[in-house]
Design brief:
Blueprint (H helix, E strand, L loop, with lengths): L7 E3 L2 E8 L2 E8 L4 H8 L18 E4 L2 E4 L12 E3 L6 E2 L18 E2 L2 H8 L9 H14 L5 H7 L9 H20 L5
Parallel strand pairs: 2-6
Antiparallel strand pairs: 1-2, 2-3, 4-5, 4-6, 7-8
Helix pairs in contact: 2-5
The structure holds FE2/S2 (inorganic) cluster (2 copies).
Length: 192
């Protein structure tokens, strides 16, 4: 059978390919189904959370084509042929040391380096119950990709994700810390 083009549709049925965290995925089903269900129920990427289901709280925030999107109100038809990144796709595998390299202790197989935003979140001990945090982090990464040195006002405007535990002040501090980490990484030629 011929491979469908991204987003090929017949009636309400969508037959689409997309990438999720760099892996090619295929979706066959209702084009109106929210991306959140595909991620959680079909791919078992349960780091992305369901909160309000109405695009209000931000718990379900992922990246679509590099920008933050609320996956509970993003239909599968809108992500056909596109790249989706979830919280599970933020950390990077640690490269193996070069043969004869000076690394004293080689990282274990499959070890991952946290994204600077994840590191800053740990350093600032942001999470309380944790439910909103994946969405907060994905929103913060999006902000810092667009605005490497945001002010408090920039952060307050951009991060509209809700937190019932009141972590907003720590979210703010973590974003400033992550901005500094990312600037250092950029100077050293690293790509978060
Ligand atoms: S669950 Fe998507 S915005 Fe609340
Ligand atoms: S940490 Fe509990 S809702 Fe945000």
């Amino acid at each position: 059978m011929a491979e469908p083009t991204p987003g090929e549709r017949t009636m309400n049925h969508l037959d689409a390919v997309l990438t999720v965290n760099g892996r090619r995925r295929r979706y066959r089903g209702d084009g109106a189904m929210p991306l959140l269900w595909f991620l959680r129920d079909e791919l078992r990427l349960t780091g992305t959370k369901y909160g309000c289901g109405e695009g209000q709280c931000g718990a379900c925030t992922v990246h679509v084509a590099g920008r933050a999107a609320r996956s509970c109100v993003t239909p599968m038809s809108a992500v056909a042929g596109r790249a989706v990144r979830t919280i599970e796709g933020l950390a990077r595998p640690v490269p193996a040391p070069a043969p004869g390299g000076a690394t004293a202790v080689a990282p274990p197989q499959g070890d991952e380096a946290l994204h600077p935003v994840q590191q800053a979140w740990l350093d600032e001990d942001v999470a309380q119950c944790g439910y909103c945090q994946a969405g907060q982090i994905m929103a913060a990464v999006d902000l810092l990709q667009r605005m490497p040195r945001p002010t408090d006002a920039d952060i307050d405007r951009a991060i509209t994700n809700l937190c019932r535990c009141g972590t907003q002040m720590r979210v703010r501090r973590a974003i400033h810390r992550a901005a500094a980490l990312m600037l250092v990484a950029a100077k050293q030629g690293g790509a978060p």
